[in-house]
Amino acid sequence: QLVESGGGSVQAGESLRLSCAASGSAVSNLYMAWFRQAPGKEREGVACIQSGSTGGGRTYYADSVAGRFTISKDNAKNTLYLQMNSLKPEDTAMYYCAAKRCWLREYEYWGQGTQVTVS
After folding, report:
1. What are the pLDDT digits (tens) for 66-109?
2. How far apart are CA 21 and CA 111, in angstroms?
3. Which residues on adjacent β-strands are paired with residue 17?
4. 35, 59 contact by CB (below 8 A)
């Protein structure tokens, strides 16, 4: 089970940190990612991180957020994070965390989402 938190309404240029608490599986063993979906738009990948120790695991970012967002996880807390800096109005969306075992093509576990609104 994945439960996101940390969303909210902020002004452009401000920061937010999203959290995704996992239960039932260790985040260290999973590939994890953040997705977002804005009204009327398709869901898009934002960032992902491979399985590994805290501070480890390769990370990947969408071009639209590279340099502003940072994905990380704390294995001791079994939690995934997304630090979002220099937020823009176009970052407004529902943000979802997702997880999968490495051999699967599709993400198999999804959170309920947390809303981020930037004005």
Report:
1. 999 999 998 889 999 999 999 999 999 999 999 999 889 999 99
2. 9
3. 83
4. no
